């Protein structure tokens, strides 16, 4: 319902005037969104004109679309009202990605001032948990679950800095919990007792400063055209991939939130020149991956969803459609490495009405490592079997290496292996990615 309404304009959008502090709190604390704040270099006269225009639009309403006429597009239209010669909205005729709008403003105007990063409460809490010992995490869990009182834990017999960390992070977690569930009365007495206990410790706050991540101004264009050559079963082929938007794990990471990947209408075709064959390889209608590192307090889970139409003779002849979902855990191994383990469920929808739909189930493992800001490698291994024929397995492995040569170009070396109980296939590809 949420996705359908957003894609097809079933939500109602409107302009409003509110104190900036209220909006920051709503985004950062209630919706758990990090904020990048870009001052606009407008004159006093332009600011006054913009406020008058917003006052005009205060009662106005419009259809809200996730992919094009969204918040970013409407902000461009406001700026365009002040400086119509910029023609900003004309640059986004099909889809409007927030990062692309920032890049358009940064590349073509002098409007953007130095950015300010405002991490959300969830981001602050996640970073602070990394500073805790296993014992401190356990004590915080006992506090927030009310399994032990503050007097039972005897915090004031501990090192004052450790006690301060425990009290502060436990209080932050309760704030996060209250905003997330709106059950303020449930945890309010405990929250006040944590604040009173913390005030008795004569040391400064233990809150750390979050290192500023790369700015959205460094965002790579979301459109991607990939051209490459490959070999499969002793046959050479050319491959052309087109992704209108948005971002995946092997794109340049600058300006993106790591662990969140989303793409739509990604289309892939193959050309076998020796056989004069042009074939559809795959159309990925929608792909969403959410891979946040596991947090023992927030208990964050990873999940994925993918819907596609594919042509893979290894699995079955002809075109087929599939829905794929999964859930699991992601672990930050080192600063630049993540490991993910999960369960994958795939439904293959046969194109022939005489055949039944098949439900496949199995584990998936993946590991990714950023060797540098421009070099990424990853390995994914999955095993699935029909739920009613577990002895018939399908194994797939993918090795992927990407080198970013510029903000708008990278190349990838890919090896793909598939195997079942009767056959196997190896495929090698060398692809160049152009971002636009």
Salient structural properties:
436 residues, alpha+beta, twelve-stranded antiparallel β-barrel, two-stranded antiparallel sheet, 17 strands, 27% helix
Question: In words, what does this structure look like?
Answer:
It is a single chain. This protein is of the alpha+beta class. The chain contains 10 helices and 17 strands. The chain has helices spanning 2-7, 20-30, 44-57, 71-82, 98-108, 121-129, 134-144, 150-153, 160-181, 184-199, and strands spanning 11-14, 35-37, 61-64, 116-118, 224-232, 235-243, 245-247, 260-272, 277-290, 302-311, 319-334, 337-349, 358-370, 375-386, 394-406, 409-420, 424-435. The strands form 3 sheets. Strands 5-6-8-9-10-11-12-13-14-15-16-17 form a 12-stranded antiparallel barrel. β8 (260-272) and β9 (277-290) form a beta hairpin. α6 packs antiparallel against α9 (160-181), α7 (134-144) packs across α9 (160-181) and α9 packs antiparallel against α10 (184-199). The longest helix has 22 residues, at 160-181. The radius of gyration is 25 Å and the shape is globular. The model has no long low-confidence stretch (mean pLDDT 85).
